[in-house]
Amino acid sequence: MKKVVLVNGIIAGLIVSVLMVASTMYFKSSGDHENGMIYGYASMILAFAFIFVGIKSFRDRYNNGVISFGKAFKIGLLIALIASTFYVVTWLIEYFYFFPDFAEKYAAIELAKAKAAGATEAELAKQTAEMASFAKWYKNPLFNALMTYAEILPVGLLVSLISALLLKRK
Hints:
The chain is mainly α. It has one domain. The protein has helices spanning about 1-30, 35-60, 70-100, 100-115, 120-140, 140-165. The longest helix has 30 residues, at about 70-100.
């Protein structure tokens, strides 16, 4: 089980990390952040396909075609944790060394959207204060890592759950 988890976790982690770096470089150079979330979650789904591959590989190669839901979910969860850790470490490196003004730029984009949508001065002031507080917290590597795990890990848990349900076999 260890080999299956490590191989598939590392492959998924490399996929999601390389795609994150590529998309970050694109969005930073183009200034177009509009579809960043779509690309980010699409790359996560693509990488987490290796959860399904890992569970199926373990079931068919090492477990005589049989696997319980619990064992399948555990394999998926471990693959998701490895891939998510790659993602988090990659983002921390990108953020602190190459994109340290991310929170400020993100705040400016969100405030411009709110202003264009007709937000009042009071609403804009409140949102500005919230964004400034978030930017301050985001400079803390632990908070940054936790927020980044909160971005990717639920997707991995969902893919693990679905894969375990589809692949369990008695």
